[in-house]
Amino acid sequence: MAHTKSAKKRLITDEKRRILNRTKMSQLRSYLKKLKLAAEAGKKEEAAALLPVVFAKIDKAAKANIIHANTAARRKSLAARMVNRIS
Questions:
Q1: Backbone dihedral angles phi then psi of residue 10, each to the nearest 5 degrees
Q2: Which of 19, 25, 34, 57 reaches 20 to 30 Å from 65, CA-CA?
Q3: Taking a C-beta distance cutoff of 8 angstroms, is the pair 54, 36 a contact?
Q4: What DSSP line would sit under 11-42, residue for residue?
Q5: Of 18, 78, 86, nearest to 54 (Cα)?
Q6: Per-residue pLDDT tens digits for 36-83
Q7: How many CB atoms lie within 10 A of CB 87?
Q8: Cβ neighbourhood burial of 79 (10 Å; 0-12, 13-18, 19+)
Q9: What is the mean pLDDT of residues 13-37?
């Protein structure tokens, strides 16, 4: 348990950040899932429309250090490949 005033404050701010990070990560996963489902169903227009939104979510997560920069690059590459594979 925290003893100092600064440590107690840090616990509160850490909890707030953890909740925000979980929310953003959950949104990111949801959009990736929507994109994957659209790609697997062969809905090229829907997948192409979702791609910029997914890229924005990934970039924002990387900028906020929720995910690593290399992870962001890998996920963007996989998302683009999913859309490009649709015939």
A1: -65, -40
A2: 34
A3: no
A4: HHHHHHHHHHHHHHHHHHHHHHHHHHHHHHTT
A5: 78
A6: 999 999 999 999 999 999 999 999 999 999 999 999 999 999 999 999
A7: 5
A8: buried
A9: 97
Is the whole-model pTM more than 0.90? no
Cα diameter, the chain: 61
Looking at domain 5-85, does it have CATH number 1.20.58.110?
A: yes
User: What letter represents residue 6's amino acid?
Assistant: S
Kindly give the interhelix angle for 5-40 and 69-85, rounded to the nearest 10 degrees: 20
How far apart are the C-alpha atoms of 5 and 25, rounded to whole Å? 30
Which of these, 80, 70, 64, 79, lies nearest to 25 by C-alpha position? Answer: 64
